[in-house]
Amino acid sequence: MLKMVDVYSGSPRSFATQSGTDITMVKATQGTYYVNPYCDTDYQAAKKAGKMLGVYHYAGGGDPAVEANFFYKNTKNYVGEAVPALDWEDYQNPKYGKDSNWCRKFVDKYHELTGVWPLIYTGQAALPEVGNCAKDCGLWLAWYATMNWNSWTLPNVSFNVSPWPTYTIWQFTGGDMDRNVVNTTKEGWLKLAKPNVDGRPSSQPAIAETKPQPKVKTWTDVQGMTWHSEDGTFITGGAINLRWGATTQSTIIAQLPAGSVVKYNAWARDNVGRVWLQQPRPNGKNAYLVGRAGNEAWGTFK
Question: Which GO molecular function entries does the Swiss-Prot or TrEMBL record give (predicted)?
């Protein structure tokens, strides 16, 4: 298996050339309104460092064909060299959970433009929604054992990826960085960037080095959010509001500046893709802050 990091504008620039990794996947565009200003900087640095490459588009929920054109227009110089991917999440995407044909229309248009089938990035909950892409596109699955798994040793877990036979990429942690393992060879990855190549691996991945998944207590709150017990440390990457509840409508306690160190004892993902951290406070009270939104961490997990 290969090791891959994925990066966006808020990532340290050093992540693009991370020692010991094989592939750098760079966020390029979002919707029809955003181009990552550091995309080519990270791309060229990774290329110079000898990394294999990928670029991804974050779905904005607009017209899928128009978004595919936007992605192509802004990454056409990478076509044939970088493996493309479509990021399908609920954060900032009004069509998530509401349009099971959106991704299919996007990949069909992108394939029409380039002859290349993009990978599909999503979480396990959305697999039925994007499953109509499985016959053509490889799966890049986000599935975490914990939020602070800061190691390339894989958690010893199993999970469903149906209707795909297996994953092409597994993003297994978003702690200190987004770490991914890729279920192909170097030659296989390079082929995925070329026109008219089947992007689906046919065999189950072989995991050579694992460690057991820690036992995690879970519970569901009144909002329907599933919480996972976990003792960890989060260092804010920018100013983040600390609140009395795990919603953006909850009262703000304080605005934490960049570099603030927060001890947390649980985390949960809300229905728009934000990861909330629970900070224990005196007298049995808890405070809450967002540590991650969609595929972008708002700081570093330790």
Answer: lysozyme activity
79-94 pLDDT per residue, tens: 999 999 999 999 899 9
Amino acid at residue number 117? W
Q: Is 207 or 39 the better-scoring residue by pLDDT? A: 39
The SS3 call for residue 109 is helix
Number of Cβ within a 10 Å radius of residue 223: 12
Boundaries of every domain in the chain: 2-212, 218-301
First to last CA, the chain: 25
Given a cut of 50, whether residue 62 has pLDDT beyond it is: yes
Cβ atoms of residues 148 and 301 within 8 Å: yes
Pairwise CA distance, residues 291 & 295, whole Å: 11
CATH architecture designation of domain 2-212? Alpha-Beta Barrel (3.20)
User: What's the count of helices (H) and strands (E) in the chain, helices before strands?
Assistant: 5, 20
Distance of alpha carbon 59 from alpha carbon 141, whole angstroms: 16
Question: What six digits make up the tokens of 26?
Answer: 């760079």
The confidence band for 207, taking pLDDT boundaries of 50, 70 and 90, is low
Does residue 294 have a pLDDT over 80?
no
> Are the beta carbons of 22 and 188 closer than 8 angstroms?
no
Q: Which helix (H) or strand (E) holds 28?
A: strand 23-30
Kindly report the number of other CB atoms within 10 A of residue 20's CB atom: 7
Q: 218-301 adopts what CATH topology?
A: SH3 type barrels. (2.30.30)
pLDDT score, position 206: 47
